[in-house]
Design goal:
By secondary structure, this protein is of the alpha/beta class. Helix content is about 45%, strand content about 20%. The chain has helices spanning about 15-20, 25-45, 55-70, 90-100, 115-130, 145-150, and strands spanning about 5-10, 50, 75-80, 105-110, 130-135. Strand 3, helix 4 (about 90-100) and strand 4 (about 105-110) form a beta-alpha-beta unit. Helix 2 crosses helix 3. It starts with 5 loop residues before the first strand and ends with a helix.
């Protein structure tokens, strides 16, 4: 049996579409880049994607993966805590719950929001992955150390 090749998607707050609404062109460029990079990952042999379903490019990428999934591919939604979507807009919650229903694997790090649950989720995703698809503006303070963790 062929080994499953996995890619997780890591994003920072810069990739939140509320922030990007100030510049629709920038939002479209990031969405196009996500589609392009997911296609590259597929050509590299990635058959499993892991998404945290965070607001913005993360939800977009997971939705794109789910709707274009080929036979033999899978999507895992790795969530930090059960009520993660409580602060999402109505439209974002619809996408979030639809992806939770349709994904191949749904996992939670914590039942409730507790300190460190998001970083624990991100470390889990990294540890499961052969590749990391990261959208980062190089300013967000959390993402740099997370990538250093991935490189170690």
């Amino acid at each position: 049996m062929k080994r499953e090749v996995t890619c997780c998607i890591i994003t920072d707050d810069f990739c939140n579409f509320d922030y990007l609404l100030q510049n629709e062109t920038e939002k479209e460029k990031i969405m196009e880049k996500a589609v392009s990079e997911i296609s590259k990952m597929r050509k590299e042999g990635v058959t499993k994607f892991i998404s945290a379903l965070e607001v913005g490019i993360d939800l977009f990428a997971a939705s794109y993966i789910q709707t274009t999934k080929k036979v033999g591919e899978s999507l895992e939604c790795a969530l930090a805590y059960e009520e993660q979507a409580n602060d999402y807009s109505e439209k974002e919650r619809e996408v979030y719950f639809s992806l939770c229903e349709k994904c191949d694997t749904l996992s939670f790090v914590s039942r409730k929001r507790i300190f460190g649950c998001k970083s624990k989720r991100d470390r889990y995703m990294i540890e499961q992955s052969d590749y990391i698809l990261c959208f980062w503006n190089k300013i967000a303070p959390y993402t740099g150390p997370l990538l250093q963790y991935a490189a170690a």
